[in-house]
Write a structure and sequence with these properties.
single chain; mainly alpha; elongated; transmembrane
């Protein structure tokens, strides 16, 4: 009967990796999180040293580069 079969998880059919939509959200989380955290650190350095936005720009670039590195590392494994 249909009620006797175990239900399948909402993940991939083999159960080893999450569905593609979850991977997409994880990528977006890394990118936005990296920019927010390191951009925020750069903003605080700007306020502390009064550098006129240079540290914020550097923080945003470093955050994006770090996030891309993590995404590539996660997707290749």
């Amino acid at each position: 009967m249909a009620g006797d079969q175990p239900s399948q998880s909402s993940g991939a059919p083999n159960g080893d990796e999450p569905p593609r939509s979850d991977q997409g959200w994880a990528v977006m989380g890394y990118l936005i999180g990296g920019m927010a955290v390191w951009g925020g650190v750069g903003y605080l350095v700007d306020r502390w040293l009064d550098t006129g936005g240079i540290a914020t720009a550097i923080g945003l670039v470093l955050g994006m580069a770090g996030a891309i590195y993590l995404v590539v590392r996660r997707m290749s494994a």
